Amino acid sequence: MEPVFSQQLQMQAYATLSSNDVLPMETLLSHLFSPQEPQKSQAYSLLHCCRKHFPDLLFIKVFFVIRNGPSAEVRTRSALVLRFVLGDLWPKLSLNAQINLKNLFLVRLQEEGSLPILRILCLIASEMAVEISRTGDEWPELIDYLLMSLQSDSERFQLSALWVCAFFPKVHRPVICETLAPSIEPTHSAFLRMLNSENADIQVATFGAVVSLIHLFSNSLGRNWFHDLLRGMMVGLFNLLSHLKEDYARGALKELIMLVMEEPQLLKPYLNELVLDMLKIVDSEQVTEGTKVFVHKFLLTVVEASDLALTMRGLPHQTLVKLLAVPMKLLLCINDDYACYNTESEQAENAGKIDLGIAYLTKISTALGEKTMTPIAFELFLEYMDASDWKKRHAGISMLAVIARECSEEMEQAASAIQHLIKNVSSDSLRMHMDLDAILSKLQKDHRYLLFFSKSSPIHETIVQFNLQVLTLLHRHCTYIMCVFVCACLVSSN
Question: Residue 409: CA atoms inside 13 Å, Cβ hemisphere, count?
Fold first, then answer.
């Protein structure tokens, strides 16, 4: 049920919208965005009254303030209010008001000089296209504007067209793709050119436009339009990184993550190239950790995509080894128990990396499956356990715990590695004692794996010997494991 507004409030609404002075509208906008609740509530009531009783006047006034507001803040607020009321208000506008608004909007897109406001207007234009379509009407002038702007030499025109394309809601994208199909070649050429633009805003906006209109290029018969664009996106990403424009590179990575989430099946033929390209970024010393976080998110999104699971398992062995090496490097962020971190933030950062590494390993194990994952993990495990650096050995132990949990049926070949680990622990190696303490702590939480390792008599013998010489710290683990071994033997004899 719609609210009923008093005669006094209706008169105030009409006075605000019909005044030649912009101050009453400016006051309304200020109160709408005020942190003070009484002012905010009263302003919303006034806005809803305007929307219900004077829709045409509201649009005219809001649009007037967008063009002629006294400050960028007022103009931005007016644009946000226009977006807020658009969906409910568009069907209530008179036909003349709708026609005028469409024309005024296209002019505003060409004339707006403030990029933040232009971005909001492009978002409104894309949503307005949906509202127009819902009423059974069309907006062919918008399509003409997009095609004209994509071919323009004006960077502002290009940017406005790209933003409109990128912001189209998913429900409207099939309609837009169908409408643009006859112009696929010039659109494709324009996108390729803009992916290589020296203007980073245009580059990132093109990423968004490609993702939004992906079905325009993937559903077309004949030429593989999508492959060219995907390659152009990766080249554009590396260009942004090489020019130290990492904030923009992160925006580009966000769009690529969205592509994986929405259309993973399109990436199957190119998955190996994509993964290798991302691994290069992770390995680069010039790229900051903040940007690498987005690369990790991309790789995790790929790993989690069920549509890509079979393709992931079919990647070349060397690619999978490099992929698994990423979480292993994250696990190296651990510090010695007796060392102090410089700051609490450093401690939290390192802990976060270790948690991310464990999550990586778990998700990669799930995606690749036991038969693919275990041989690769075992290969890395031996390499890490043979290292002199205790951090690498600790990472190997952590990986083993994950693999033991996720790939229990394929763990048989790891038994000799456990034996090797135990035999090489000397009584004067405190770090290795703590490594072994960590893995025994992990293994004793699940009897299945202890029972599995109890099948290996060499391991059984070495643990008995080890229990005679190690620090008191480890006695409880060895004793516990021996008890499980005894139980296992009793079960086997029965």
Answer: 5
Q: Whole-model pTM?
A: 0.79
Q: Would you say residue 196 has pLDDT above 70?
A: yes
Q: What is the band of 339 on the pLDDT scale with cuts at 50, 70, 90?
A: very low
Residue 52 near residue 93, CB atoms below 8 Å: no
Give the pLDDT of residue 222: 56
Please report the pLDDT score of residue 106 as a whole number: 93
- How confident is the model over 238-262, as a mean pLDDT? 94
Residue range of the domain that includes 48: 1-138
User: What does each C-alpha distance from 115 to 120, 160, 323 come to in angstroms?
Assistant: 9, 9, 39
DSSP notation for 371-414: HHHHHHHHHHHHHHHT-SSHHHHHHHHHHHHHHHHH-GGGGGGG
Task: For residues 11 and 69, state if they share a domain.
Answer: yes
- CATH for 365: 1.25.10
Max Cα separation, the chain?
98
- Token pair 């793709």 is found at 177
What whole-number distance in Å separates Cα of residue 14 and Cα of residue 426?
Answer: 87
For residue 233, being part of any structural domain is answered with yes
